[in-house]
Amino acid sequence: MATPAAHAEVARIDVADEGVSITGTLAGAGASAGEADLVARRRRDGAEARSPVDVDGDRFEAYVPFASLPWADPEEPEFWDLSIALEGGEELRIGRHFDDVKDKRHAYVFPLRELELPAGGRRFRPFYDAGNHVFIRTGPRGRGPAGGPTTPARPARRSVVPPHDMALHRLATALARAILRRRGPAWPRARSVQRTKVTILIANAYAMGGTVRTVLNLAGFLAHHHDVEILSIQRLRTNPFFPLPPGVKVRVIDDQRAHQPLGGWAGRVRALLRPLPSRLIFPADLRFRNACSLWTDLMLLRALWRVREGVVMGTRNGLNLAALLVRRPGVTVVGQEHMNLETHTPQRQREIARRYPGLDAITVLTERDRQTYAQMLRSAPRLEQMPNAAPALDAPPAGLERPIVVAAGRLTLQKGFDMLIPAFAKVVGRHPEWALRIYGDGPQRKALERLIMEHELSNNVLLMGPVRRLDLEMSQASLYVLSSRYEGLPMVMVEAMSLGLPVVSFDCPTGPAEVIEDGRSGIRGRRLPQRAGRRRLRAREGLHARVDRRALGASDRGAIRRRVARR
After folding, report:
1. Residues 356, 432: one domain?
2. What is the distance of C-alpha 547 from the center of its chain?
3. Same domain flag for 171 and 133
4. Which domain covers residue 436, as residue numbers?
5. Could you check whether the bond before residue 381 is cis, i.e. omega within 30 degrees of 0?
6. Of 464, 470, 459, whose CA–CA distance to 417 is shortest?
7. Residue 27 maps to which CATH number?
8. Do residues 18 and 67 lie in contact, with contact meaning Cβ atoms separated by under 8 Å?
9. What is the pLDDT of residue 80?
10. Domain total for the chain?
11. Which of 86, 170, 319, 417 is the right S-S partner for 201, CB 3.0 to 4.6 Å?
12. What residues of the chain score a pLDDT lower than 50?
């Protein structure tokens, strides 16, 4: 989007109880001194409300009293666009155009205020529009959440699957195994055929997430030497979030996109089975199992019937157990664990101990994971530590010049952003020029928005949403922060280090300790961030003096990957 030649560039927006303060600079203006007015213009009819603006050189300070914005219809929302009218008649729209934040409408979160005025109750809240200009939305009171201070809920008590659900799952598993055993082995291949068939089971190859990225990276690498097929249990979007690797076939088991017609008897069977819960997917893998149905089971069984040889890989707990259905002579079954054992519920751990010995091999991400799984599983099956497959990055090394901190991940309680935001508030109190950019989306977004408003961080903490090239965003930052309560081996952290970014991480049970040398290539702090935030999330002068001269020696793209591989 082109930057306007002349406009009023926003530096800060502060929402007080009865109005909005805006500070910034006059960019490209013909006149930069003298009297000026802030003009609030109603979109519906062009009605104006004016208030004085303080101009000092090219800097301005403006204040919009909410009470100065009347409304024509008390039941309808109204939108007021903001401009600065200079003494010579020039009018400059107020907006933010000089930074690299593309979707300001959703990245910046400003508080909502409710006022009881003589004409009645009204709500007021500033926003950026699609053109990055500032406007104020007003509306009637009492519709939707007021956006008051609210802390994200603590993790709920972990669910236990009822015994009858487990019994039905085991019955369905036994029936599916009996059906698949009727499928004979493949004809022996000629000795000249060297390419092995590799089948990878993944929850959703079209989704966003660290596991999806690592599985696609692995599949792309294996496709150079083997015949690789990905079985995506679900598909919810038309275009994949990450590009699918060349040479890899992707087959969808259950296409759950809207408006996917299926005629004939298959359509009738789907309509009958879709409302019924899956019995083949391990019920304690709750989130995944709840996204599947009996139709998913039928389509998965149909796909596994075609697997007669090679290697079958599962990529999460429920799919590792599903992969066991095809174990027979000529088929090697490998389970991938992308999370540490302690994060599984006790019920899930008991099923792991009972059924994982049937796998031919299990891969885990860290040495600690290998030790904990070995203690549980004893001598079987083969257990290997295999870090995530990290791709080569095209982004330039981080310049470490801008006061930007990056964090990334799905907006869930696991990622700990609800702890990071209060910690960063301590940093902003001492270094107000620093900004935290959180990349990702998820169910905790509204709760994190309320935390941002509660700690008055609307100008310093941005919810950037998902991006396809996170490496390009990290290369513009000076620090990467990992605030997770638990992790496997976070690939984004490894990629950040490969770009030369110092890393500050909560010392969660597994992952960071495998690659961060505390005080050399990064800093590991306590999980509760209030103390760590003050002491460890420092600005450039403090943190980089300790870290970058030693850690940036590892900014060669392969250095971090080689270090992980050695472990």
Report:
1. no
2. 26
3. no
4. 404-566
5. yes
6. 464
7. 2.60.40
8. yes
9. 95
10. 3
11. 319
12. 145-151, 155-157, 528-541, 545, 547-567
